Amino acid sequence: MAALRSFPPSAAKSEVSSVPFLGARALFSLNGKVALVTGGGTGIGSFLAKAFVENGAKVFIASRKMSNLTATADALNAIVPNSCQAISGDVSSKSGCDALAVELKKQTDRLDILVNNSGFAYGGVGIDNVPEQGWDRTFYLNVKALFYLTVALLPLLEKGKTDTNTASVINISSVYSFFPSAFQPTVPGGGATWSYGPSKAAAAQLTKMMAASLMKRHVTVNAILPGYVATPMTKHAPGDILSKAHPSGRMSSAVDMAGIAVLYASPAGAHITGTLTVVDGGMTLQQPDAAGKDVGDSFRPKRDANGTPKL
Ligand SMILES: NC(=O)c1ccc[n+]([C@@H]2O[C@H](COP(=O)([O-])OP(=O)(O)OC[C@H]3O[C@@H](n4cnc5c(N)ncnc54)[C@H](OP(=O)(O)O)[C@@H]3O)[C@@H](O)[C@H]2O)c1
């Protein structure tokens, strides 16, 4: 048997000896962080609030309906005592964003995570039937609120931040920011949410513009672009139909949403900014209209003899 050769210990020092602990509990920890999640009483916002609380953060959730906020805050406080607080607020105007910032400043003198999640989807069945009021409400909430709430909270977000300890702004956009389906199964009877897709595209563009501006101030800005998620927003469309729109065969879950949000908000995300992360089980890898085709023609608008969509 050949003798084993022994080598003297290397004189060179490996780079890893000076690298900090890289276990997941350090990389993705939110310990001691303070978060605000708009629309945190329901749906995706409540999933993210739960993820933040369960990874060590204190979370404020804000929207118009105190009953939903209180129910979610009570549920999260039962899991982690004193981890969640509800604040009433309407972010669909600049004055509403400013008022929410004033209320938050009464509760905390710093903020580490802001999730601009509150959103609204407005569906007109046909291109000829889209009331202006719904169009405007969609843009106020899905675009303007992201900008003015972030700006109003910048003093809290910047406080105490460094190039490795950054604040994180997370905007909830949508795959409909770039996926040009005019036949969405979430619209009863088929048809497009004409103002929703453009509003989410604007949210994605705003994410990149604000990221470019705010990195020097140690604030990252990123967006999550979900496919379909089972929430109050999608409850009127049958779940199996929405599931079929994804090649994965299912809608996105709370786990799918939480994973990317925790990454963005954690030390592991401190150098990630201006990114748009699609979480859709491959939905947008199909032909642009495939999601609509897959769910069947029964969800397309019926047309009269002139080709006009019928309600
Ligand atoms: N579900 C999906 O498939 C899906 C896919 C892609 C993107 N998204 C986006 O995900 C975000 C969350 O939606 P969701 O699916 O979780 O539906 P959701 O449960 O209906 O969430 C919408 C939230 O927005 C809040 N909101 C509405 N108007 C508001 C206002 N004027 N001021 C403050 N908050 C307001 C609502 O709370 P109040 O009524 O109490 O104000 C609610 O909590 C939205 O931006 C949506 O566009 C959803």
Keywords:
single chain; 311 residues; alpha/beta; Rossmann fold; seven-stranded parallel β-sheet; 7 strands; 12% strand; binds NADP nicotinamide-adenine-dinucleotide phosphate
Question: Briefly, what is this?
Answer:
The chain is an alpha/beta fold. It has nine helices and seven strands; from the N terminus they run αβαβαβαβαβαβααβα. Helix 2 (43-54) crosses helix 8, helix 4 (94-107) packs parallel to helix 5 and helix 5 (132-158) runs parallel beside helix 6.
Q: How does this structure look, described?
A:
This protein is of the alpha/beta class. The chain has one domain (27-299): NAD(P)-binding Rossmann-like Domain (Rossmann fold), CATH 3.40.50.720. The protein is 36% helix and 12% strand. The protein has helices at residues 24-27, 43-54, 66-79, 94-107, 132-158, 196-214, 239-244, 254-265, 290-294, and strands at 34-38, 58-63, 84-88, 113-116, 167-172, 219-226, 276-279. α2 crosses α8 (254-265) and α4 (94-107) runs parallel beside α5 (132-158). The site of NADP nicotinamide-adenine-dinucleotide phosphate (NAP) has 30 residues, from α2. NADP nicotinamide-adenine-dinucleotide phosphate (NAP) binds at residues 38-39, 41-45, 63-65, 68, 89-92, 117-121, 141, 172, 174, 226, 228-229, 231-234. Keywords: NADP, Oxidoreductase. Belongs to the short-chain dehydrogenases/reductases (SDR) family. Residues 289-311 are annotated as: Disordered. Residues 291-305 have a biased composition (Basic and acidic residues).
